[in-house]
Write a structure and sequence with these properties.
The complex is a heterodimer of chains A (about 525) and B (about 325). In chain A, β9 and β10 form a beta hairpin. Chain A has three domains: about 240 residues, Rossmann fold (3-Layer(aba) Sandwich); about 180 residues, P-loop containing nucleotide triphosphate hydrolases (Rossmann fold); about 60 residues, no CATH class. Helices cover about 35% and strands about 25% of the residues of chain A. Chain A is built from 18 helices and 20 strands. The radius of gyration of chain A is 25 Å and the shape is globular. Chain A has a six-stranded mixed beta sheet with strand order 6-7-8-3-9-10, with helices on both faces. Chain A has a six-stranded mixed beta sheet with strand order 16-17-18-13-19-20, sandwiched between helices. The relative contact order of chain A is 0.10. In chain A, α15 packs parallel to α16. Chain B is mainly α and about 325 residues long. Chain B contains 14 helices and four strands. In chain B, α12 packs across α13. The longest helix of chain B is centred in the first third of the chain and has 30 residues. The radius of gyration of chain B is 21 Å and the shape is globular. The N and C termini of chain B lie close together (about 10 Å). The chains are: A alpha/beta (about 525), B mainly alpha (about 325). Chains A and B meet through α2 and α4 of A and α2, α9 and α10 of B.
Chain lengths: ~525, ~325
């Protein structure tokens, strides 16, 4: 077994200040395998990757590469050893060309005082051609996100790359782009490159990988052949307890009242299709599916007054409301959670309490125009308690929380105004399995309390597991509606990609652009 | 935009990019030409060698400071202390000369002292972790104070400087002043280095995305430190030339210069967010400001109006840039 190992990690420990990120972990990568590394956020996966890539140094333990002990003192050493890491978040110099980004480490190590752009382009193109025909003289800023992701991979793939580590490479990709990436990863494997694959998505891991190693709380838990475990077992090892049900129980058909909480009629926005109409029933979770860029966010943002609408009416509980700006929507009881938690969702530098109160400060303002800090604290602790955000306290700075808990804070903020309808855009992106289950349960609870819930998700299993009904969007328009018993990945994809067009319900699908 | 780039022949991408990059420069040249043509009709004094020489002289020495500032902006920094450092270099060299040192050695020490100011700022930025803005704001005030301390607040009269030294600032090759020659040489060297030298590519990478640069093994703190030192050193060099030109060292000289310098670099396309900018563009920015100033003087516009107009030009340039960028993405 060890004879075929290309990379062996033994007893690696690493602390950051008082926090122990890794405790004596082991990890063995066989030659030519795709090895999944799983664990909740904070389990230590990224720390281990950073150690192998030379970005951080371990406190203790050994790394053996092809049977020899190695010290990986810096990213350039890692690259020389043939180890490449693709980071979770795209970290490219947007102003520089693809070629410069791919060969940046080589440029850094160059002795020659002057650049040789001709050779640089030729060398970079050789690497890029292994993946996709992207011209390397293009500045990165002009590429789509998925092509930027490919540049990240190309960057990790020096010509002598032997070990490639991918940290959640599909997080920002659409379904089709992800499929293309998998083909590339399989191709790299066929070329004899050994791959470490980090992902939260069980479906990906089980279709792509040969073995899976699970970490929990900075410790090694187990390594299994994919063929001999089930996704449920892997998840159980990750969270350390049995998760009996990944998704909460759906609404039974008899309990669907049909009373609409929200009805949108004949909505249109600039550069969008005409006449979008749909309704959301009380107690229902309505999923919105479609490819990234299909106009899902645009549609709900228009409903919430975050985008100017050209025409259309919005009714809440049967009463028409006029929504011109987002604050109109909030006042009417319609709230929206942005898909980009870091950029437009949360104030990372502020405390949990301040984040929660941001949506409706007026409620917490004394007649003198000052903020009632006691009321703010009370509101925050009530909401936090109800939604189980584990952390130091309501004064904790949000940036120190895990992704899942940050998301719960963001949701708590929406709930602070007592909404009638909650619209969430990719509510579990970058959130670990445990928190994901909690968020799903929270949404179901809300629905049962009579709040209308709309969830946009690019993750098909989530859309299917969570929704009572799904609307599929393509090119801005609603191209199909699927009830709970019709929900399959295939059905959604056929509609989303335009292979099939459904016009089952003229009330819902009026105008297909 | 994406489609446009893909549509063009593959392999020509970088030329495309160069075109995009130089659109800014071409635009500046066009504006300047238009202004010059208009001024030629408006004033008989405009299109004369005398006036052009005066304009070139006026921005040549500042132009050396602009070179350093542009590189610092590319790395994502900014230096508000350049005006003070120009003066500091003058005052230190001048004082040492008055104490009996020969002017060349005194000047070298003056430039060295400026580099030391840069190194101190670099230390606070890279080791302590302050940002460039605050650090250089403090340095601006501190160094200005030092100038006043050294001179006790009164200008140093340096009319005894030997003719050989005064020649740097006052002499000329036939019709072309040495100052202009020095300026052209400095600009040519740094423009070339910034485009081609490996070391200066790291400046772009660090400014564009520090994390990505770090992951590639680039020692970004070192890069930032040395660029900070370079900017102050070039300011010190400019100070010495000013001293030679004026034959005096005034402790209030260069106050407000930093704004002109930063404006020129930004008009020329340097981004305050780092990652982009060219020396050529920055010099064009400087030249445009200079042509405008000269025009306003020839048109007899009051000095008070001049600053306002220059400010408006800066605002217009940055707005156009912002608009172009938004269209691009």
């Amino acid at each position: 077994m060890t004879a075929a190992a290309i990379l062996e990690i033994r007893d690696i420990s690493k602390s950051f200040g008082a926090i122990k990120a890794l405790t004596e972990v082991d990890f063995t990568l066989q030659r030519g395998e795709i090895h999944a590394l799983c664990g909740e956020n904070g389990a230590g996966k990224s720390t281990l990757m950073n150690i192998i890539a030379g970005i951080v140094q371990p406190d203790d333990g050994t790394i053996r590469l092809e049977g020899r002990d190695v010290t990986i003192a810096s990213p350039s050493v890692a690259q020389r050893l043939g180890i490449g890491l693709v980071h979770q978040e795209i970290a490219l110099c947007q102003d520089a060309t693809v070629a410069e980004n791919i060969l940046m480490a080589a440029i850094n190590n160059r002795r020659a005082p002057l650049m040789s752009f001709r050779r640089l382009y030729a060398d970079a193109q050789k690497i890029m051609d292994l993946l996709a025909p992207i011209p390397v003289e293009t500045p990165v800023a002009d590429l789509s996100i998925s092509n930027q992701q490919l540049v990240e991979i190309a960057k990790a793939l020096t010509l002598e790359c032997r070990v490639l580590m991918l940290d959640e490479p599909t997080a920002a990709l659409t379904e089709t782009e992800a499929q293309r990436l998998f083909a590339i990863v399989r191709d790299l494997k066929a070329r004899g490159i050994s791959i470490v694959y980090i992902s939260h998505r069980m479906a990906e891991i089980f279709s792509l990988c040969d073995r899976v190693t699970v970490f929990r709380d900075g410790r090694y838990v187990a390594t299994d052949f994919i063929a001999s475990v089930t996704p449920k077992e892997v998840v159980r090892k990750m969270v350390g307890r049995e998760i009996t049900q990944l998704y909460p129980q759906k609404l039974s058909p008899e309990r669907r009242t049909g009373r609409p909480v929200l009805s949108v009629g004949n909505l249109s926005y600039r550069e969008g299709p005409d006449g979008i109409s749909f309704t959301l029933g009380a107690g229902e979770i309505l999923g919105i599916g479609g490819l990234i860029g299909a106009g899902r966010s645009e549609m709900v943002q228009t409903v919430c007054g975050l985008r100017p609408k050209v025409s259309g009416s919005v009714e809440l509980n049967g009463k028409p409301v006029s929504i011109r700006t987002y604050s109109d929507a909030v006042r009417a009881g319609l709230v929206y959670l942005s898909e980009d938690r870091k950029a437009s969702g949360l104030f990372l530098d502020l405390s949990v309490a301040s984040n929660i109160s941001a949506l409706d400060l007026r409620k917490l303002t004394t007649p003198l125009g000052l903020l009632d800090r006691r009321a703010e604290a009370k509101q925050a602790s009530d909401l936090v308690e109800r939604h189980g955000v584990r952390m130091g306290g309501i004064e904790t700075q949000v940036s120190t929380l895990s992704g899942g808990n940050q998301q719960k804070v963001a949701i708590a903020r929406l709930l602070s105004v007592g909404p009638k309808v909650v619209i969430l855009d990719e509510p579990t992106r970058g959130v670990d399995v445990g928190a994901k289950v909690e968020i799903h349960r929270l949404l179901r609870d809300l629905a049962e309390q009579g709040v209308g819930v709309i969830v946009i998700s690019s993750e098909l299993p989530e859309l299917i597991g969570l929704s009572d009904r799904v609307l599929v969007i393509r090119e801005g328009a609603i191209v199909g509606e699927l009830g709970a018993d019709e929900l399959t990945e295939e059905a959604i994809m056929l509609l989303a990609s335009g292979v099939r067009q459904q016009r089952s319900n003229a009330r819902h699908v009026q105008n297909v652009a | 935009m994406d489609a446009e780039i893909k549509a063009s022949a593959p392999g020509l991408g970088w030329r495309n990019w160069l075109r995009l990059g130089s659109m800014r420069e071409a635009g500046l040249i066009a504006i300047m030409l238009a202004l010059c043509i208009a001024m030629t009709f408006a004033s008989p004094h405009f299109l004369t060698w005398g006036n052009f020489r005066a304009m070139l002289m006026s921005f040549s020495i500042e132009g050396i400071v602009v070179v350093g500032m542009t590189i610092l902006l590319i790395v994502g920094g900014i230096d508000l202390s350049v005006g003070s450092v120009v003066c500091f270099s003058m005052v230190v060299s001048g004082a040492l000369f008055l104490m009996g040192l020969d002017p060349w050695t005194a000047s070298l020490i003056g430039i060295g002292a400026s580099a030391l100011v840069g190194a101190t700022m670099g230390f606070f930025v890279t080791v302590i972790g302050l940002n460039h803005f605050i650090t250089s704001l403090a340095a601006m005030v501190i160094v200005r104070g030092l100038c006043l301390v050294i001179t006790k607040g009164t200008p140093l009269s340096l009319f005894t400087l030997p003719p050989g030294f005064k020649a740097i600032g006052q002499g000329s090759f036939g019709n072309v002043p040495y100052v202009i020659v020095i300026f052209v040489v400095v600009v040519a060297i740094f423009d070339f280095l910034l485009r081609r030298a490996t070391a200066f590519r790291k400046v772009f990478y660090t400014g564009s995305n520090e994390k990505a640069a770090q992951f590639s093994g680039i020692k970004t703190k070192q890069v930032k430190f040395w660029v900070t030192v370079l900017c102050s050193t070039l300011a010190g060099f400019a100070g010495v030339i000013y001293m030679s030109r004026f034959g005096a060292a005034t402790p209030t000289f260069g106050a407000g210069m930093e704004l002109n310098i930063i404006a020129a670099a930004v008009i020329g396309g340097a981004s305050l967010n780092g990652g982009s900018g060219t020396i050529f563009g920055a010099i064009l920015g400087m030249a445009l400001l200079s042509v405008v100033t000269s025009s306003l003087i020839l048109l007899d516009v009051s000095v008070y109006w001049q600053d306002m107009i220059k400010g408006c030009i800066l605002l217009a340039a940055v707005s156009i840039d912002h608009f172009l960028h938004r269209r691009k993405s």
